[in-house]
Amino acid sequence: MNNFLDENNIKLNNSFYVDETYSKDHIHMVHSHKTLELLYIYSGCGRYFIGSREYAVNNGDIIICNANILHGESPLQKHTMQTYCYSYDNVKIKHLPINTLTLPEEKPLFVISKELLCHFNSLMPMIHNYFHKGNSQIAKHLSISLLYMLYNEILTHQKAKTTLSEQKNDNLVRNITAFIDDNYKENLTLEKISKTFHISPSRLSHVFKEETGLSPIQYAIHRRIGEAQSLLIESDAPIQDIEESLGFCSSVHFCMMFKKYIGITPKSYRQHFKRSCKK
Predict the structure, then answer these.
(1) How far is residue 64's CA from residue 102's CA, in Å, rounded to a whole number?
(2) Strand boundaries in 19-159, DSSP class E
(3) Digit-coded pLDDT (tens) for 22-62
(4) Domains of the chain
(5) What distance in Å separates the CA atoms of residue 269 and residue 225, rounded to the nearest whole number?
(6) pLDDT band, very low/low/confident/very high, at 233 (cuts 50, 70, 90)
(7) Verdict on whether the full-model pTM lies above 0.85
């Protein structure tokens, strides 16, 4: 299974742990990265949005968020999850784009087999603790072992050929999603989107919500808030710069919308993750 082209260049960028209490009150909405992310459901359950579909997730599930694939927690559902999340860069597998573990048509959610479950439950907190205690090399090598085990699981699923079936209106929803992804920082309206695709607003909204669980405008808002969450965690940019870059009309509007969907202010959200990284 020597499919990783250059193991030495694989980088473990970051490690996050979110407990059940915080997960219940503060979701991380739709966003994307140039890196590969693995999200492991250590305990509990919830719902997660990946690509253009929403999935029920439970303890023992691992979510593969390939580079540039939209993902996030559903704000319309209760979450009681305890999760570990790892961000990788320079993961190169033959015949796949960089930072990608699965083919586009494959389901991005895997249930870890009973044989490996105890190993994943041990490795996840171990990697996180080593990473945040400054033992980055140990964390990196353990996380690469995790990648190998997961990729072996993926190969097993590929042999079983369990792929997502094509559904009606997939292409339209994919195109609408791409349009919103390119324009969510602007003041989008349902009428503007429907004119772009030459379809009535009611029909567009129905098709999109049937596939994604969200209206087009809800999805655009989730994209803004999700990107704001990522910037608050991963950068030191001033909050005012973040809100302006995402098209919010004022600090009051940004703070109000962020607190409405996430449950706390942007400042408190950033402080929470800064404290978590120091533990």
Answers:
(1) 8
(2) 36-43, 45-50, 53-58, 61-65, 71-73, 82-89, 109-111
(3) 655 566 777 888 999 999 999 988 878 888 677 878 899 99
(4) 7-160 (2.60.120.10), 170-278 (1.10.10.60)
(5) 12
(6) confident
(7) no
